[in-house]
Amino acid sequence: MPAAADLTHPAADRIEIVGVLAALGHPVRLEIVRKLASGAEASCGEVVPDLPRSSVTHHLRTLRESGVIRQRPQGRKLYLALRRDDLELRFPGLLELVLACRSRPLDSECDEQPL
């Protein structure tokens, strides 16, 4: 687990669309975001699929550094939360669109709507 000092998060006004889209573009990271979509903070063990620790560390760092999630260490646990409000302020509707398209086939309405 990273040390608390290593858990830097970008300020809301520094979150960039390219980083957010890159982070959301990986199936494992997208699944983590879906699990956090309820808004409740969850421990890493509750959210992250059964992956090698190095992969988990990479995916969480990518999500954190892009501004998609917030990580908070407490004791031996690491808690995760989706930065829904910050993402909504920066890119209105983006997160809802991504979450709404979670399981639709490629030819569905979701993919036909202009951005």
Give an account of the 3D structure.
The chain is of the alpha+beta class and 115 residues long. The chain has 7 helices and 3 strands. It has a 3-stranded antiparallel sheet with strand order 1-3-2. Strand 2 and strand 3 form a beta hairpin. Helix 1 packs antiparallel against helix 4. The radius of gyration is 14 Å and the shape is globular. The model has no long low-confidence stretch (mean pLDDT 86).
List the helices and strands and how they pair.
Elements: H1 17-24, H2 27-36, E1 42-43, H3 44-47, H4 53-66, E2 69-74, E3 77-82, H5 84-90, H6 94-100, H7 109-112
Antiparallel strand pairs: 1-3, 2-3
Helix pairs in contact: 1-4
Structural Rg: 14 Å
DSSP helix fraction: 40-55%
Secondary structural class: alpha+beta
The largest beta-sheet arranges its strands as 1-3-2
Mean pLDDT: 86
- Give unreliable regions as ranges: none
By DSSP, the count of extended strands is 3
| Largest sheet composition | 3 strands, antiparallel
Total of DSSP H or I helical runs spanning 4+ residues: 7
Gross morphology is globular
End-to-end distance: 38 Å
Order of helices and strands: HHEHHEEHHH
